[in-house]
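Inverse folding, one chain.
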């Protein structure tokens, strides 16, 4: 972990108020992030888990007891790819990047059980100050990490006009020297990793030249920073993997990935975040209007979005869109490549790109992504591991993603067993963050 990240974590830990007494969570079935522990107690003291299982230590004497009989306890979910402060109802753009809107989004993530969020680019210049504030106070929402503005292409991705980037905090270097300087500047600003946009959006915009992203990756590694790259196609991913990128931040969606590249990713430790929901979201809500009547989804949608999506005309127009056939094919290919990469032992992360656009619904998208992971052949337990322990490992966050002594007490309490049915992650009873119960049921 880099020194500036370690320092911020230490400051946050100092700032968090300690619980007045230890708390013992009893009688819940515990999935610890890697395996099912069965019904077992979990002892929290302050912001941390201090003991899991029986017999209980002496520290449990006098602890406040919380009876979670019939519940399932798992680590808070960890998102490796999301965005904050970029939407307002049906609109999107960086004009909405304010402290209050970022906190609004982080609280929504938290309510839906996502207790750590990586805002992977398009963050405003206020990112570092907001991150310091929210990470010191669990009442302000999920813990925030991220890539600042990120590094994009001149006149290319992320497209400033289409994404509403009026202030455009994205660096857009014109050559290798400027790419190295952009990495240095973003490190000085306190980013947790570097985000690159390496995609020509199907030939609609110029793609970032290889000399620029190769220089950025090399400079980032020299500064002990990980690099995540936005891609769409196999050729882009292949060259980035050759350049030793750390994370492929979207699924490969144009062609099937080959066994040699799977092996190379496994051997290099390249991480892969499928974000299957990013394409599915273009048609899923219009195709499944009955889902708009469910309390879980309605709790995630702004009123104006819900009103628009309920209109039959909008649903018909959305499904008739020119991009829908391509989105369906992208989902099919993304699922197939996820199957291959999982079978090949490639390191997986968890993310959805939620928050970048109104249809990428904060909180709900993550639970939908869990379902999509199982559609790619992962068991519910494996999908939950990807969204907790593996997602934390991908970011280098060793203090979370597991229920174990010494880890942060970031926990999700469910009314039903997600190991039997992954959709049961939607049965949220409570969310704990840093040893405090910060949110209750979404559905009563």
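Residues assigned per position:
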């Amino acid at each position: 972990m880099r020194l500036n990240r370690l320092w911020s974590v230490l400051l946050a830990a100092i700032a968090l108020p300690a619980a007045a007494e230890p708390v013992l969570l009893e009688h819940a079935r515990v999935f610890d992030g890697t395996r099912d522990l069965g019904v077992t107690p979990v002892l929290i003291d302050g912001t941390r888990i201090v003991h899991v299982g029986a017999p209980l230590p002496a520290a449990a004497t006098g602890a406040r007891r919380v009876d979670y009989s019939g519940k399932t306890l798992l680590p808070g979910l960890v998102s490796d790819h999301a965005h904050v402060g970029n939407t307002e109802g049906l609109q999107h753009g960086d004009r909405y990047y304010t402290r209050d809107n970022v906190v609004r989004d982080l609280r929504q993530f938290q309510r839906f059980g996502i207790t750590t969020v990586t805002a992977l680019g398009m963050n405003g210049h206020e990112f570092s100050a907001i991150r310091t504030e929210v990470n010191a106070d669990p009442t302000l929402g999920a813990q925030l990490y991220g890539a600042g503005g990120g590094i994009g292409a001149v006149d290319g991705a992320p497209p400033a006009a289409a994404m509403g980037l009026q202030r455009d905090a994205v660096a857009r270097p014109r050559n290798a020297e400027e790419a190295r300087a952009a990495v240095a500047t973003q490190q000085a600003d306190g980013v947790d990793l570097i985000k690159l946009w390496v995609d020509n959006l199907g030939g609609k915009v110029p793609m970032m030249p290889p000399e620029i992203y190769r220089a950025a990756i090399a400079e980032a590694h020299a500064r002990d920073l990980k690099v995540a790259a936005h891609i769409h196609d196999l050729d882009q991913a292949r060259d980035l993997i050759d350049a030793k990128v750390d994370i492929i931040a979207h699924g490969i969606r144009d062609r099937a990935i080959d066994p040699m590249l799977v092996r190379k990713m496994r051997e290099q430790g390249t991480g892969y975040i499928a974000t299957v929901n990013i394409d599915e979201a273009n048609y899923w809500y219009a195709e499944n209007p009955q889902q708009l009547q469910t309390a879980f989804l309605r709790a995630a949608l702004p009123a104006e979005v819900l009103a628009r999506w309920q209109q039959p005309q909008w649903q018909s127009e959305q499904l008739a869109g020119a991009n829908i056939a391509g989105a369906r094919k992208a989902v099919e290919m993304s699922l197939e490549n996820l199957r291959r990469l999982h079978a090949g032992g490639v390191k997986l992360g968890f993310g959805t790109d939620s928050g970048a656009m109104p249809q990428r619904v904060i909180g709900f998208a993550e639970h939908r992504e869990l379902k999509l992971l199982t559609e790619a052949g992962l068991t519910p337990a494996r999908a939950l591991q990807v969204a907790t322990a593996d997602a934390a490992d991908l970011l280098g966050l060793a203090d979370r993603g597991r229920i174990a002594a010494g880890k942060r007490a970031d926990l999700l309490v469910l009314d039903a067993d997600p190991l039997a049915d992954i959709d049961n992650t939607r049965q949220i009873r409570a969310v704990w963050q840093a040893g405090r119960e910060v949110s209750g049921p979404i559905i009563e």
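Residues 299 and 442 are 7 Å apart (CA to CA). The longest helix spans residues 324-343.
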